[in-house]
Amino acid sequence: MSREPHVSSEKFEWQPNVSLLVLATLFFPLLILLGFWQLERADEKQRILDEFNTNQQAPPVGLAELKRDENYQYRAAWVRGTLDGNRRILLDNRVKNGRPGYEILEALSVKGLKVDGRSQAILVNRGWVPASMDRNELPVVETVEGEVQLRGVLYRNLSGGYRLDDGIKTVSQWPSRVGWVSAERAEELYGNDFFDYQLRLDSDSIGALNTGWVTVSVQPAKHTGYAVQWFVMAAVLLLMTLIANSNFGSFVKRK
């Protein structure tokens, strides 16, 4: 009469299960990588917030101070010029309070604005407007007439992130609805030189629509929390693998 082999609980012994070990070998490093990725995201978001706080405390920058290689991200600025309401950009798929819409951008012609000897315009983001349920119906936006002084914050697109490929190379009809925009792309669309940063208008500035932009969509602490969750899952997987491939459970109870 055959009997099941007796596993001693007095000393620790391996009872390897190849399938479980393979799964653990695959998933454990993945969980660790996800944890470190979230920590990197937390560091990235913290750097953005630190830059925002530092430059927000700096005095507003004027036209005479603008230089190409300076860091003006989130820096307050006062700019005087004329907005081109005839050539307007509608930045598509901008959601605010759960409602789809557009951000309205126009080129600001500034007399005497030269950066490193080059005459340049500034792309002005006037803010958000709701979109119609009919995609063929574009929003009606009041044009700002004449020379005006605008107040806002300088902003340059952050690296990375998802860009909607709208397939637009040249503008055949204004206003132009695009999936993404930067100073570099504005130069292609308008055929003019643009300053590296756009101006996001303050809520009480002339020409402002529905303004207010989120600095970071997810706070650093939340990314850190996600990282802890991934590391905990890795630890649990390691413990479960140990239990499933040894007499660890009975060995601990014996002790």
Automatic annotation (TrEMBL):
Q: Which domain of life is it from?
A: Bacteria
* Entry keyword Transmembrane: yes
Q: Where in the cell is it found?
A: Cell membrane; Membrane
Question: Quick one: where is this thing mainly located?
Answer: membrane
The keyword Membrane belongs to this UniProt entry's keyword annotation: yes
A GO cellular-component term linked to this record: plasma membrane
> In what way does this protein cross or attach to the membrane?
Multi-pass membrane protein
One Pfam family this sequence matches: SURF1
* TM annotation in the entry: 20-39, 230-252
Instruction: Report keywords, A-Z.
Output: Cell membrane, Membrane, Transmembrane, Transmembrane helix
Q: Which family does it belong to?
A: Belongs to the SURF1 family.
Which named protein is this? SURF1-like protein
Q: Which organism is it from?
A: SAR92 clade bacterium
